[in-house]
Amino acid sequence: MNKRILIIGNQGYLGSRMTDYLQERGYDCTGADMGFFAEGVIYDPLPVKMLDKEARTLEENDFNGFDVVIQLAGISNDPFGNLRPELIYDPTREYALRIAKICKKLGIRFIFPSSCSVYGLGGDGLLDENGPISPQTGYSLNKIQIEQDLAEISDSNFSPIALRLATVFGFSPRIRFDLVINMLCGMAVTENKIILNSNGEAWRPHLYIDDVCEAFRCSIDWEYNEGKLMILNVGRDDNNLRIIDVAQLIQQAESGCKLSFLGQGDETVDDLVKDRKINDGVDKRNYQVSFEKIHRELPGFATKWKVQDGIIQLLKDFHKSGLSKFDFKKREFYRLQHIEYLYNQNFISDTLNWNK
Hints:
Elements: E1 4-8, H1 13-24, E2 28-32, E3 49-50, E4 68-71, H2 85-106, E5 109-115, E6 121-127, H3 138-153, E7 161-165, E8 167-169, H4 180-191, E9 193-196, E10 203-208, H5 209-221, E11 230-234, E12 240-242, H6 243-253, E13 258-261, E14 286-289, H7 292-297, H8 307-321, H9 325-328, H10 335-344
Parallel strand pairs: 1-2, 1-4, 2-3, 4-5, 5-7, 6-14, 7-11, 8-10, 9-13
Antiparallel strand pairs: 10-12
């Protein structure tokens, strides 16, 4: 009997690829989503059953029959405009906890995507799951708060899993060009140049999207039942690289590609591809992460993709899909800017609900 998986937030960048990945491997998937990015596709995902609900409207009876819930729904960028962070993130925390409690009551496995960005200012060494956290954004703080809530309700009847993901990249039906490697590869393919927003000296762990999907697949099949929250960093140690290192790998892989820095010479960058969290050319988010634990603890899991190999594959995917400058600048492929557009056009409310 194939396991039945409910993927809440299946129409995002990660959810779209993960739903395809799991269905291709025989899992019985159902989705639930707000639909903010439903139309923003670069290629068609596989058909999937959908509940006519989203994270905030799901009720207990909607969960009947599912073996596993993957709670992807949430805001994947920092708040926009004049909205206070708590207006954006407090509801995310509330519905994540409510859904987790339903899963606990019904005996359903609960898997939550956290983020290595919780480490924030990491210094020089590799940080493991017991290392100090220093969230630099509302998004990272929200991840920590949800982890803490899950830890609090864990007991002999509930053993949730939180996967702290490195910075994801790779091809997906609903591509995101506001993720660093996706953005730089998109620039390289459509403009034959890379312009860095920062000095490129910040360290970051990177993770190919299919390795993310495999971590979730292995977590689905894991009979973990230790009565406490399991936190795992997801990635591989040799994928801790500076942004400048990543840019140079892309430059080497894409023939004739030029590399420059914003603010040097006459380089200008469209507002879409500017990172608002970088000030005066410096990215304060700087950390390196240890991934020893997941390879020791998670049965059957292994990361297959080094950054260099993932970059080569992504460039191939972009060329094969005929990625154009027009595609690269589509608002729907930039999460923050698209939500801002929906908000400013009065399609969605201050609470990020659709206006009727």
